[in-house]
């Protein structure tokens, strides 16, 4: 059996089992004497992870942002980022330096720094970021923890990155900024953790659908999302041509990097002051549902997944 | 100007400057309230970093070992490893699982664990490991710290990995084990840090020559290595055909993963009980020298370097 037969998620399950089990959170958690350390790593490749139109600065920004978003998702304070970069030998130095300027600007914008890294020669530009953060043991937010009845919330708006993908296809680069320069919700994550009212949290980087399934699986619950409460990004309104396209951008496209979290209903007022967010639904006993015009339809476990047949066909073999 | 025009070391210098300066140690150091956290990342590629003869288990072992060696080089205790893996879609699942068994066996053998990671589809197998460790603020060992007069020491023996490279070329796989299954000196690093007598330390993974230059640069000193005191690996004795080849294996080949460290001469007895090691020379005011038959010759700054013209010619473009 090959990697392409089973996709990334199944492979991760097998590897996790082989390694003796891992917690499924956005970061690994290590308890130190005083604080908890959280740490995460993400590998990004030129062809499969960065749109062809991305500038080198945006490539750098994205590389730092995706890792900082995982730190934010734990409600942790970033301690720094490490960057390992595999760089094609023929790459212009100015291009490489722009990548690192993008990384620097992203970490600075989120109150942290580059701690170190590694560079070597590689055929395809590959950037592997690792971010570290700290959080107090009592305040750290995990994917598990939601209980039926909890309110389901999201920061910011949804679908902006998915709309950006379409924008690039039709030459509307002006509408692709959310896709190319994602803003990790670091300040919001820390503020939400401090409230003590959030029961579970993760980022929605793989799309709302997959994120809801992950959150449900970790907590042993289900979720109902109210269609009318979904905060649509302006880019979705500008570019989507049908309800189906709107839903695809929100649920499946991925790349939004908002925080998806649950709150005990009786404590929602404690969260109001922490940051801007929208209540989009509620945790239920089981199932992942979209409530639209009074009808509940199941939300399938679809979203951006590396290594699956579709992704391989459309990305790895396209050599764009 | 292109990456291939300047090589990895110069690129790192430029990036370091761009990022506002970084300490040149094997790991980044973050001071927490009680202990120091150390963290390191290394990206390895199928074609440039793993000999073609390496088994998948050995690929996994090496990926964990190179990162654990950096933790050892700081005298730190490993807290865990994260692995991001880019895997070609056509890779057999059994092969992937063997890689992760190798990773698991290596981390277990050194008293630590895999904390998390990331997998995705990538054209060339690429494994980016990140290792974390802890050390007390007073005990942590850095590259800077050697003073003229300090004794220069190494754990284990030297040249075994370089000999392994030649062994693979001539079909003597039996002599390549040190190359393919490097043993990070985790126990030794912790024990050396506890003595309080070690003034500077790093691993020699890029070869003795480059490591000496790095150690000298960090400490503002020089070093004299006594040829007769170099502990040659058995593999070097078995396979090297000339003195020149011996020196090349020891000084330039890289891949040995021993600890190179300096000790105050009056405290050498405090170090004797920590681990097995050999005194191979001494820190001096300046210059990197080999003392052989009473003649001092300079040791050039040569060693394994990614992205340099030679490496690119011989590795990236060879598609072996």
Please describe what this structure looks like.
The structure is a homodimer of 320-residue chains. With 320 residues, chain A is α+β, with helices and mostly antiparallel strands. Chain A folds into 2 domains: 3-137, 2-Layer Sandwich (60s Ribosomal Protein L30, Chain: A); 151-298, Phosphoribosyl-aminoimidazole Synthetase, Chain A, domain 2 (Alpha-Beta Complex), CATH 3.90.650. In chain A, 38% of the residues lie in helices and 25% in strands. Chain A has helices at 3-18, 46-49, 56-73, 93-109, 160-169, 177-180, 186-195, 208-219, 234-239, 243-252, 268-272, 309-316; strands spanning 28-31, 36-45, 77-87, 114-121, 126-135, 151-155, 198-203, 222-226, 259-263, 277-284, 288-292, 295-298. In chain A, the strands form 2 sheets. In chain A, strands 7-9-6-10-8-11-12 form a 7-stranded mixed sheet, sandwiched between helices. Chain A has a 5-stranded mixed sheet with strand order 1-2-5-3-4. Chain A starts with a helix and ends with a helix. At the A-B interface, helix 1, strand 2, helix 2, strand 3 and helix 4 of A face helix 1, strand 2, helix 2, strand 3 and helix 4 of B.
């Amino acid at each position: 059996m090959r990697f392409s037969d089973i996709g990334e998620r199944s492979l991760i399950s097998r590897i996790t089992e082989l390694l003796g089990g891992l917690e499924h959170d956005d970061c690994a958690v290590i308890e130190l004497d005083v604080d908890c350390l959280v740490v995460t790593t993400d590998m990004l490749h030129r062809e499969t992870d960065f749109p062809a139109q991305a500038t080198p600065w945006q490539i750098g920004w994205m590389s730092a942002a995706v890792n900082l978003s995982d730190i934010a998702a734990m409600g942790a304070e970033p301690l720094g980022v490490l960057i390992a970069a595999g760089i094609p030998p023929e790459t212009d130095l100015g291009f490489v330096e722009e990548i690192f300027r993008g990384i620097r600007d992203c970490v600075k914008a989120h109150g942290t720094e580059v701690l170190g890294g590694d560079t070597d020669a590689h055929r395809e530009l590959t950037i592997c970021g690792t971010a570290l953060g700290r959080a107090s043991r009592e305040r750290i937010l995990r994917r598990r923890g939601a209980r039926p009845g909890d309110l389901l919330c999201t920061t910011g708006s949804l679908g902006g990155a998915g709309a950006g993908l379409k924008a690039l296809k039709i030459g509307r680069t002006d509408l692709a900024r959310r896709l190319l320069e994602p803003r990790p919700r670091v300040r919001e994550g820390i503020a939400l953790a401090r409230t003590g009212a959030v029961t579970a949290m993760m980022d929605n980087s793989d799309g709302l659908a997959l994120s809801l399934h992950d959150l449900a699986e970790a907590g042993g619950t289900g979720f109902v999302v109210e269609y009318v409460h979904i905060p649509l990004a302006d880019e979705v309104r500008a570019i989507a041509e049908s309800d189906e396209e709107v839903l695809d951008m929100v649920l499946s496209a991925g790349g939004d990097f908002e925080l998806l979290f649950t709150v005990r209903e009786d404590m929602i007022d404690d969260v109001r002051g922490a940051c801007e967010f929208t209540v989009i639904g509620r945790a239920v006993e089981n199932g992942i549902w979209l409530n639209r015009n009074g009808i509940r339809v199941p939300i399938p476990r679809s979203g951006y997944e590396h290594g699956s047949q579709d992704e391989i066909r459309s990305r790895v073999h396209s050599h764009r």
